[in-house]
Amino acid sequence: MAAMAAGRRLLQLRPELRPCLRSRALIPYPSWTKGMGRFRYEHPPRRLSSCRHGDFEEGNAAAKDKQPWRLSSDEQLIHGKDDDGASKKYMRKNFADEFAQLSLEEEQIDDEMGGISESVVKDVAKAAVELLASRSFTVSELRKKLRAKKFPDNAVDSVIADFKSRGMLNDGYYAESFSRSRWLSSTWGPKRIKQALRQKGVPDAEVDQATRRVFQDGHSNQTMYGISEDSMDHLFAQAAKQWQRGQSLPLENRRARVVRWLQYRGFSWAVTNAIVRKLEAKHPP
């Protein structure tokens, strides 16, 4: 197929060689003769040809007499004009050599355009699917995992771009799912969630949008602390458990224990102070 493509490319670049290409049979017509008691194969006789700006002439005795030399089987005579308009003749390799060269160039161009083989892309896609089947990944995490398997960077980028276009990779969905899970299961606050998502390579815009959706719950009933009333109520319920576990401790120790718990989970000082004061009011020592 590459040879046929190179042939078409040669005709586009050198239309004057079209008669030459037509005059040479790519597949010789067989000539079978009977002799010596068996059949044998004979190639058709080779005919000499020359190309002169699209003018095709069969090589015959008269043409040979006009030529000061005879063309070898691997050369052809080219007529043209130089920059001064003077006619000139020069020898060059025949179109078969140029045909072979263009064929090689076509294959090289195809490799450069594709950049990667189809088999390599399939291997990368298979590895990516196996990773995603175990758990979710951000775009950055999946890229690092695939590159760690020694796959070419261009193949990895191609697969990731394809997965993103098909919705198999989405940092926005990942960020929101991660935020909600850490908030409900571990009571992580916005600050710690944002830090974790940035370490996973999620863009800041996706991080901010995800935390707003989780802590503001899509409602307008936000408190002065930047999170919704429902989120504050949930946080107070979790903090109350920590407050009750330290009921045998002095008040200062109980207070310090809850403060460390809230600060470690990424809540601001304003939120922490509001929760501690509410705990002291509803659960006095």
TrEMBL record:
Task: Give start and end of each RecX third three-helical domain.
Answer: 229-274
Q: Which PANTHER family match?
A: REGULATORY PROTEIN RECX FAMILY PROTEIN
Q: Which family does it belong to?
A: Belongs to the RecX family.
Q: Name the principal localization, coarsely classed.
A: cytoplasm
Q: Which GO terms describe its cellular component?
A: cytoplasm
Q: Name one GO biological process term.
A: regulation of DNA repair
Please state what the protein is called: Regulatory protein RecX
Q: Which residues form the RecX second three-helical domain?
A: 170-210
Q: Which InterPro entries match?
A: RecX_HTH_1st, RecX_HTH_2nd, RecX_HTH_3rd, Regulatory_RecX, WH-like_DNA-bd_sf
Give compartment(s): Cytoplasm
What is the protein's species of origin?
Leersia perrieri
Q: Which UniProt keywords apply?
A: Cytoplasm
Superkingdom of source: Eukaryota
Please list the residue ranges annotated as the RecX first three-helical domain.
127-161
Q: Which Pfam families match?
A: RecX_HTH1, RecX_HTH2, RecX_HTH3
